[in-house]
From TrEMBL:
It comes from Dechloromonas denitrificans. This is Phosphoribosyltransferase. It comes from the Bacteria. Transmembrane segments: none annotated. The keyword Transferase applies. Keywords: Glycosyltransferase, Transferase. Residues 189-233 form the Phosphoribosyltransferase domain. Pfam families: DZR_2, Pribosyltran. Residues 21-71 form the Double zinc ribbon domain.
Length: 238
């Protein structure tokens, strides 16, 4: 059964995110989902991205052309691949990983992220790093968990230590859109040489893309030939 048409399941859904899903039980509706984390009915109802997207940032466009923002100033990353639109209940699934510590969600998300992914020109995976204070508080980096699973699926190496977040910044969600690029400027440091490497940069959600763009800028300053972004979900303006 799907969660979407059944409002009376919402409260129970919230409790399940805290308590953890039972084996073979759908994370969203509690129905039988074995062997998957999400049952087929709920998966079919997950918010899809529109068919026409900017090839650089995956913002919605009319015919799949570059969006106005990327035409005005192209991002430092070369391409974005996103699996879902960031909306209910995908936001709850991601929150179950980030704040509910349900690491099985990382396996499911990584499997889903393979669908839109083009890896012909990728030879190294790097997760978006967390500042050590946030990492200590949360106990793990959700992007690193997803990246590790992607590395196993794709048989590609994962580098979790060369790109670092060296400056703590206020959460991007708390800031106006215009201030987000300034907020993360200089927040990342690269302690290695990526000359000629084709990097897949992994995160859970892209909103404005400011943080991923700053990471891509730093990676290219250290020699990366291409930086392609893959995220579980993309928040759209409209």
């Amino acid at each position: 059964m799907s969660i979407l048409p059944q409002a009376n399941l919402f409260r129970r859904f919230g409790r399940r995110l805290l308590a953890g899903a039972l084996p073979g039980s759908c994370l969203l509706c509690s129905g039988d989902s074995a062997p998957s984390l999400i049952c087929a009915a709920c998966e079919a109802d997950l918010p899809a991205l529109p068919g026409a997207l900017c090839p650089l940032c995956n913002e919605q466009t009319t015919h799949g052309e570059r969006c106005g923002a990327c035409l005005k100033e192209a991002p430092h990353f070369d391409r974005t691949s996103a699996r879902f639109r960031y909306d209910f209940p995908v936001d709850r699934i991601i929150h179950a990983l980030k704040y509910g510590h349900q690491l099985a969600v990382a396996d499911w998300l990584a499997g889903q992220m393979l669908a839109p992914l083009t890896t012909a020109e990728v030879d190294l995976i790097i997760p978006l790093p967390l500042h050590y204070a946030r990492l200590r508080e949360r106990g793990f980096n959700q992007s690193a968990e997803i990246a590790g699973r992607l590395g196993k699926f794709l048989k590609l190496p994962v580098d979790r230590s060369t790109l670092l977040r060296t400056r703590a910044t206020p959460p991007q969600a708390e800031l106006p859109l215009k201030e987000r690029h300034k907020n993360v400027r200089g927040a990342f440091e690269c302690r290695g040489d990526f000359s000629g490497r084709r990097i897949l940069l992994v995160d859970d959600v892209m909103t404005t893309g400011a943080t991923l763009n700053e990471c891509a800028r730093v990676l290219k300053l250290h020699g990366a030939s291409t930086v392609c972004v893959v995220v579980a979900a993309r928040a759209l303006k409209h």
